[in-house]
């Protein structure tokens, strides 16, 4: 059931990406086709060429973000809605005022009774009148649900109904204008202004779906269902405005290819309808699960919701599937490709995590080594990245086996994306201890929501040290934890608040230059420190980092053991921080099936080699990075 549910979710996400390919193509090509109504000598291939130029320009400007032109989006959409509403009202009054009778459900029954199977097949084209609503989830990231409802009920729906009624009124008297019906309904004096507004509205609509595609890819990546990609935040003030270069260029190539290949809005519309209806149906199914598990409502209520809306959408989807030979195969192929990529990536990550979980180092073997862990402890803090939230990963034993030396303070760092949109800064850091106090080993779990921004924040190291110091103080105040070490308490974690400065055991002050830091005992040689200094001078992002020193205040109420532990932490921080990360190669076992070998040895290996590395995604400075090579046989 878990695999089936995962495939359904990935199918919906893949169709959203397919929607990001088809929406710009059909929107821009439809708007540019209006040129053939007035410029009668213009060839259709010229319209296709102009559409491709507009599409390339649209995708080429994505890296600049939308904040500089976003103030124009709302006026363009409002002008567009009122324009089509006004044109529809004009056509109703001018051509057929009795068209309002079509609002009666009687004509729906009459239509299907008269047309039969042909009427059902026509639903594949009728559904295009409501496409675009499947992307409303993107608006919910920036607006409240109440504002979306008010805008839809008071402006969007009335204007669309007036336009469709006016269009029908015009066609009832001018059936020979069927191919270019919309632009033929525009009165000649206002044709060119409406054409300009229609083109701008097509660009705005395309921009909205492209942004929604970036958003869904980022969320899939945060949940471990998409390969690592570069996420650029294009706005300092508006949260959620992102740009993903790899996805942007893939969408552009596919969008131009669809436009050039089909050159017909009818064929693209067939593909577009399948993508939209699949997204709607998957959304309805997942919404039913939310009603049961999140809202804790009666399962009968959820089933009624699913049956009512799902049956309507299923009828439209079944009709649109009849258009698969006429262009409807495009979203199915795109969905299959993106689903395969996401599922293989998720499967590889999951198998790797299971291997780490089964091969972690036991605490009894750690305790048998003593406080020195049987190795040389050198000054500094070692941050060991791991996916495990309990236990010691096998990468640690593999490292010390080949190089029997490690830092005085060890922090096993786990960065987790949790299935909630945002995590409060006061709930982000969880800190615990591994082994007795004299081992100087800690565990820190940093939690992010799938909409949170993991910025390249130079303050991360300082926040981590502060969180560990607060944990040491909290542990000292807890009488039960001050006793001798008990292996049964292993795994206990404490949530550390970072916004409250009250009770901070360390003071932090800025300092300039490196002279102050050189007096601190360090594990780095003179040549390595010289190399780091040159690296910082050549790297503007690093040279702008805030330099601080920690100090342990003189407090008579603080126990000597606590003070010694804090001093050891401060001295280790001043000596330097090293980031240790596994550079893993995953191989399928010889006894594995052919599909598993293909997924792991070919699919996952290809994706891992051609996507961004974890050190780049986590913004780890290269000068302080140590990678440990390991082979995982899963």
UniProtKB/TrEMBL annotation:
Residues 517-544 are annotated as: Disordered. It comes from the Eukaryota. It is found in: Membrane. InterPro entries: K+_transporter, K_trans_C, K_trans_N. GO terms for cellular component: membrane. Keywords: Ion transport, Membrane, Potassium, Potassium transport, Signal, Transmembrane, Transmembrane helix, Transport. GO terms for molecular function: potassium ion transmembrane transporter activity. This is Potassium transporter. It comes from Urochloa decumbens.
């Amino acid at each position: 059931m878990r695999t089936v549910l995962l495939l359904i979710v990935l199918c919906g996400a893949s169709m959203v990406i397919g929607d990001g390919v088809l929406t710009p193509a059909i929107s821009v090509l439809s708007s540019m086709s209006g040129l053939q109504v007035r410029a009668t000598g213009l060839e259709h291939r010229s319209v296709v060429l102009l559409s491709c130029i507009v599409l390339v320009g649209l995708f080429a400007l994505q890296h600049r973000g939308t904040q500089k032109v976003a103030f124009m989006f709302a006026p363009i959409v409002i002008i567009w809605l009122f324009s089509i509403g006004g044109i529809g009202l004009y056509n109703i009054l001018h051509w057929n005022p009795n068209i309002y009778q079509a609002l009666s459900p009687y004509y729906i029954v009459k239509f299907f009774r008269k047309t039969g199977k042909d009427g059902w097949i026509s639903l594949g084209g009728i559904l295009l009148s409501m496409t675009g609503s499947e992307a409303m989830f993107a608006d919910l990231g920036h607006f409240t649900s109440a504002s979306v409802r008010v805008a839809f009920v008071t402006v969007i729906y009335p204007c669309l109904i007036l336009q469709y009624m006016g269009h029908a009124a015009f066609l009832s008297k001018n059936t020979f204008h069927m191919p270019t019906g919309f632009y033929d309904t525009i009165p000649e004096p206002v044709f060119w202004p409406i054409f300009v507004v229609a083109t701008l509205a097509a660009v705005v609509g395309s921009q909205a779906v492209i942004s929604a595609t970036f958003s869904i890819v980022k969320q899939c990546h945060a949940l471990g269902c998409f390969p690592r990609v570069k996420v650029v935040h294009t706005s300092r003030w508006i949260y959620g405005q992102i740009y993903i270069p790899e996805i942007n260029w893939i969408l552009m190539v596919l969008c131009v290819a669809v436009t050039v290949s089909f050159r017909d809005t009818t064929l693209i519309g067939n593909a577009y309808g399948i993508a939209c209806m699949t997204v709607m149906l998957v959304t309805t199914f997942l919404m039913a699960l939310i009603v049961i598990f999140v809202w804790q409502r009666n399962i009968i209520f959820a089933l009624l919701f699913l049956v009512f809306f799902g049956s309507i959408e299923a009828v439209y989807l079944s009709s649109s599937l009849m258009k698969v030979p006429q262009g409807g195969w495009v979203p199915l192929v795109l969905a299959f490709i993106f689903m395969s990529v996401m599922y293989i990536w998720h499967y590889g990550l999951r198998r790797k995590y299971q291997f780490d979980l089964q091969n972690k180092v036991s605490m009894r073997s750690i305790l048998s080594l003593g406080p020195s862990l049987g190795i040389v402890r050198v000054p500094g803090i070692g941050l060991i990245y791991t996916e495990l939230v309990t236990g010691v990963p096998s990468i640690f034993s593999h490292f010390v086996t080949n190089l029997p030396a490690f830092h005085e303070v060890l922090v096993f760092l786990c960065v987790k994306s949790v299935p909630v949109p945002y995590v409060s800064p006061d709930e982000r850091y969880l800190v615990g201890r591994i082994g007795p106090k004299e081992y100087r080993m800690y565990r820190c779990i940093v939690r992010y929501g799938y909409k949170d921004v993991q910025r390249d924040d130079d303050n991360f190291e300082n926040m981590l040290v502060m969180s560990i110091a607060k944990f040491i103080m909290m542990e000292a105040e807890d009488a039960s934890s001050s006793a001798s070490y008990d292996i049964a308490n292993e795994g206990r974690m404490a949530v550390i608040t970072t916004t409250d400065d009250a009770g901070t055991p360390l003071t932090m002050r800025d300092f300039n230059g490196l002279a102050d830091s050189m007096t601190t005992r360090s594990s780095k040689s003179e040549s390595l420190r010289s190399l780091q200094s040159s690296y910082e001078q050549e790297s503007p992002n690093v040279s702008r980092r805030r330099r601080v020193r920690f100090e342990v205040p003189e407090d008579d109420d603080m126990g000597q053991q606590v003070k010694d532990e804090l001093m050891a932490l401060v001295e280790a921080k001043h000596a330097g921080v090293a980031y240790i990360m596994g550079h893993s190669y995953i191989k399928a076992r010889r006894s594995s099936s052919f599909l598993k070998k293909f997924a792991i040895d070919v699919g996952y290996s290809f994706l891992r080699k051609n996507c961004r590395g974890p050190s780049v995604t986590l913004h780890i400075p290269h000068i302080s990075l140590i990678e440990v090579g390991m082979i995982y046989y899963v």
